[in-house]
Known about the structure:
The chain is α/β, with parallel strands linked by helices and 261 residues long. It is built from 6 helices and 11 strands. It has one domain (3-246): Metallo-dependent phosphatases (Purple Acid Phosphatase, chain A, domain 2, 4-Layer Sandwich), CATH 3.60.21. 23% of the residues lie in helices and 24% in strands. A hairpin with a 2-residue loop joins strand 4 and strand 5 (108-112). It starts with a strand and ends in a 15-residue tail after the last strand.
Amino acid sequence: MPKTQLTQITDLHFGETPEFTLAGIRPLDSFKAVLDAVNDAGRGDDLLLLSGDLSGTSSAESYIMLNQLLQDYGKQALWLPGNHDNVELMKKHLVNYPPYPVWEMGDWGILTLDSSQSETPIGHIRDEELRLVEDRLDQLKSKSILVSMHHCPIALGCQWLDKQKVNNPDGLYELLASHSNVKLVVTGHVHQQYDGLWNNLPLYTTPSSSIQFKQHSVDFAISDQPPGYRWFDLGADGTIKTGVEFATHFGQHPDTNNAGY
Length: 261
Ligand SMILES: [Fe+2]
């Protein structure tokens, strides 16, 4: 049965230069290690879903470097913004990757939405965004739908991060749950893996391509896991296969005593 292949890479946290470091690793190098791991896994032709915090510093240079790197690797990609991003700079400098709120692939529609707010890491779905989602769902009635946003809509048991979840998830949930062709929700931001449910909707979060946050921690804490990504095989009948993989050969190691990011 034909399937649609997608690879999610999230929370790249690029800085202004290739030498920029985050908790002791270079996010540009770790992103390359993830791209290499994706290619080595035979998924080099997958569409990439970049689910926010592409920059960690809201800088034009981050997006210029990312655009060039994606071109060098010959990638197709779609993106959505995170709390560390600047949407206007993304639109301006990701010159080969214009925004696609809706991407149609075979029997699937990939719907991206903006859960970020300026000046705060807390997620929020604006009324305007909710209306756009409704319009897009109307356009995609014949497709199975993957919905992606940066922030997680539920608590994952990581107390400091749970405070940053989407602060008004109910309207979005009701809208998505009322469309039986919405099959799953995929997020970034939490820098850790979760495979579970948002009420009745399958929900997946994904390790970062830079540093990982320690699961079930009360205060900010970094884990020693390597950079990672998530793959999806989306079936023509709406079925989902997914898994997380890590770039285990990446030679840089995060400073797990780092107090912030
Ligand atoms: Fe984030």
